[in-house]
Write a structure and sequence with these properties.
By secondary structure, this protein is mainly α. It contains seven helices and no strands. Helix 4 packs across helix 5. Keywords: Membrane, Transmembrane, Transmembrane helix.
Length: about 180
């Protein structure tokens, strides 16, 4: 009988801990994420969606712009999963690579900009809790995560360009490298 009581208490403790964590997020990270989302939507409205779309189209000309700048801006301004929608401005040949880079940016930028991917913020917060326990600064962790992410995410996109060429050759197809203008 004691075992069943201990099991029931442990079960309830699990949910109480979850509730405590949820309440702490409601006092801390949730208002920050909400305000960041409002700020980003305001910025998009001020800049104008068409200007953002033109930037996306212009960035297709360079791998650095395609796989470093565009995914970062998309993640920062649109968040996950909408950041991936900017890939629609890329020729078919570059879409797999953009997705590879863009999907990673939604994770590696999350430490500094939690509005990008609030659904997976728990990963960064878990690592940050360990860093705080060790007495280190979590802002430094977030900056390092972002900087390493910028480089590694670029390489993820660029390497995917090479694997796309291999698949094209294997399948006997050639993906388009030019975009037709849609007005």
């Amino acid at each position: 009988m004691d075992f069943l009581i201990m099991l029931a208490e442990g079960f309830m403790k699990l949910f109480q801990t979850g509730a405590d964590t949820f309440v702490s997020w409601m006092k801390g990270i949730v208002p920050v994420v909400l305000l960041l989302i409002v700020a980003m939507n305001t910025l998009i409205q001020i800049i104008g969606e068409e200007r953002i779309n033109r930037l996306a189209r212009a960035s297709t000309k360079s791998p650095l712009l395609r796989y470093m700048v565009l995914p970062f801006l998309g993640s920062f301004m649109l968040g996950n999963p909408m950041a991936l929608s900017l890939g629609r401005f890329l020729p078919e040949k570059y879409k797999p690579s953009y997705y590879a880079a863009g999907a990673y940016f939604c994770h590696t930028s999350n430490g500094l900009f939690p509005h990008i991917n609030p659904g997976e913020l728990f990963i960064f917060l878990g690592i940050a809790a360990g860093i705080e326990t060790l007495g280190f600064n979590t802002a430094e962790l977030a900056v390092r995560y972002l900087l390493v992410g910028l480089v590694m995410n670029f390489f993820a996109g660029w390497i995917t360009d090479f694997t796309t060429k291999v698949v094209e050759k294997q399948q006997g197809i050639t993906l388009k490298t030019e975009m037709k203008a849609h007005h």
